[in-house]
Amino acid sequence: MQQRHYPMNSYILLxxxxxxxxxxxxxxxxxxxNEFSISLRIKVDIQRAIETDEVSxxxxxxxxxxxxxxxxxxPSKLLEHAGGRIIKSLFQRFPKIEEIELKLTKRNPxxxxxxxxxxxxxxxxxx
Length: 127
Prior knowledge:
By secondary structure, the protein is of the alpha+beta class. 31% of the residues lie in helices and 33% in strands. It has a single domain, classed as 2-Layer Sandwich (GTP Cyclohydrolase I, domain 2). The protein has helices at residues 27-32, 47-52, 61-72, 79-93; strands at residues 11-21, 34-44, 97-107, 117-125. It has a four-stranded antiparallel sheet. It is elongated.
């Protein structure tokens, strides 16, 4: 019996990964650090993993996390720079990734405003 494949778009989601890191323009931010949150929506064809139930047929959440964690330990002045590095690393390390949506926020940034967080969103497709 032949297996049916249904057309689908499929995504791996990692919501609100939390890190303490040293990104910021002000010298104080690079000395004291701050809390950051990252959410990812990663387009990956999971059709084969649906059939096989094998992690080798998808991209491991744990491996994605470790890649993001490594990039977050490298200080950047700008969130744009840190986010761009994360996307580049994910595309380089995981050939199965087709698209990435990344949200990166800094809690209570030092800008003289009553604000919970400020951040960036990046959407990128594999070059």
